[in-house]
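Consider the tokenized backbone below.
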């Protein structure tokens, strides 16, 4: 009787799920439009002479959290594609069977987006109406809310997922244990968000020194200014984490390719720190010595990283060996079927790898609009990279399962994987 009753409830939920999502999507769109209207009206009231300077400050506080929200949206798209193509991504990441679906990831992203847009609108409205102290509290409250929500010790708001993410952040910060796929995967994603992390540091610094909604940021040599030594340190943090992970992997496996991967991340540090030196040396010395050295390091890192993406992370043979038939010039097994997808990924990755240097270089970050564009393009490159990196992990998992008789006995049957995929695509709520 209980089974029958639960089946009825599940059927009702499945029927109502699309309509519920439709109502939520409409509500989300309406609220965003209202916020944008209020924000535009607030900007109209401001002094035109100082508008660009004020917009830079708005960018500084809200650009990091907005891009974080965008990355969650993109991750939801990744998961949707993995599920529809029957990728065993849950096994790749060693996730609980009730892990969050793509719809729940988009739900989290929508709430993050609403929080960011609402806070920014309140900031603009209050500042334009002369309530500066209340305006200054808006980004502070937003930045306090993020860690509080992540660490909330209550069985709500996907507690297991939040804690899984926090544990991964701790492990990648202190890589003293064997490295899992999730550990280096998250660290790789953070390398694409290095500029976001440096903006978080600058914003937190200004909040600590009570410089929110002021013009103190105009002095680049200020404690929280654009010439701060902490900026390159924070930019380097994700790459240092990946470097240490590679060394740990070499310690565990004795695989020399881990050392070559570590070398790739090592080539990032000269790009970051030589660029930052521009504001701490004489200009003639910068143009005569450091700038050519920076260009050389940037080219080396971009080429090395591009080669590693294609040949190692994606395991595509396009850059090595003689010419072969179309599919064989990439790799024998292509889970996305269409070869042109892979050639598009190779070409776009090459272009965006070159653009990557822009956002890491302090001496190029004069126009915040351009920096925002390049930061977002790097996130799109990482979003694309994820598809092929998880594809390779899934192929290796399938290969190891097929070659190990014990794994074949203990592996999940295909029908169970299919039923799990259908369960996740159904749009029902999950706890993890």
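A designed sequence for it:
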């Amino acid at each position: 009787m209980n089974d029958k009753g639960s089946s009825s409830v599940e059927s009702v939920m499945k029927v109502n799920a699309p309509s519920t999502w439709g109502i939520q999507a409409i509500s989300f769109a309406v609220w965003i439009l209202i916020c944008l209207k209020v924000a535009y009206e607030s900007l109209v009231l401001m002094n035109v002479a100082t508008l660009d300077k004020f917009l830079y400050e708005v960018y500084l506080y809200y650009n990091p959290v907005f891009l974080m929200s965008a990355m969650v949206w993109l991750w939801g798209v990744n998961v949707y594609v993995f599920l529809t193509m029957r990728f065993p991504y849950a096994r790749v990441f060693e996730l609980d069977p009730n892990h969050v679906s793509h719809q729940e990831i988009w739900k989290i992203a929508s709430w993050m987006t609403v929080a960011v847009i609402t806070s920014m609108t309140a900031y603009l409205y209050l500042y334009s109406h002369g309530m500066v102290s209340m305006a200054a509290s808006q980004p502070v409250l937003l930045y306090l809310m993020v860690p509080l929500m992540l660490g909330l010790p209550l069985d709500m708001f996907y507690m297991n997922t939040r804690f899984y993410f926090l544990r991964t952040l701790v492990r990648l910060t202190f890589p003293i244990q064997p490295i899992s796929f999730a550990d280096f995967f998250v660290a790789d994603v953070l390398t694409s968000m290095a500029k976001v992390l440096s903006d978080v540091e600058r914003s937190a610094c200004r909040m600590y020194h009570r410089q929110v909604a002021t013009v103190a940021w105009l002095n680049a040599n200020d404690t929280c200014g654009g010439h701060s030594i902490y900026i390159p340190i924070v930019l380097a943090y994700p790459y240092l984490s990946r470097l240490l992970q590679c060394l740990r992997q070499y310690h565990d496996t004795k695989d020399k390719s881990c050392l070559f991967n570590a070398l790739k991340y090592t080539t990032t540090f000269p790009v970051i720190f030589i660029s930052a030196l521009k504001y701490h040396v004489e200009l003639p010395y910068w143009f005569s010595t450091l700038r050519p050295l920076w260009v050389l390091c940037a080219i080396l890192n971009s080429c090395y990283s591009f080669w590693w993406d294609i040949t190692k992370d994606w395991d595509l043979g396009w850059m090595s060996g003689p010419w072969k038939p179309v599919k064989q010039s990439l790799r024998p097994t292509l889970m996305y079927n269409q070869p042109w997808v892979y050639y598009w990924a190779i070409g776009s990755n090459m272009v965006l790898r070159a653009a990557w240097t822009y956002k890491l270089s302090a001496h190029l970050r004069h126009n915040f609009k351009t920096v925002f564009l390049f930061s977002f393009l790097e996130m799109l490159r990482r979003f694309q990279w994820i598809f092929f990196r998880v594809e390779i992990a899934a192929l290796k998992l399938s290969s190891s399962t097929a070659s190990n008789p014990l794994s074949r006995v203990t592996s999940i049957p295909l029908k169970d994987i299919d039923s799990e995929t259908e369960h996740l695509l159904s749009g029902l709520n999950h706890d993890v």
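Residues 278 and 286 are 6 Å apart (CA to CA).
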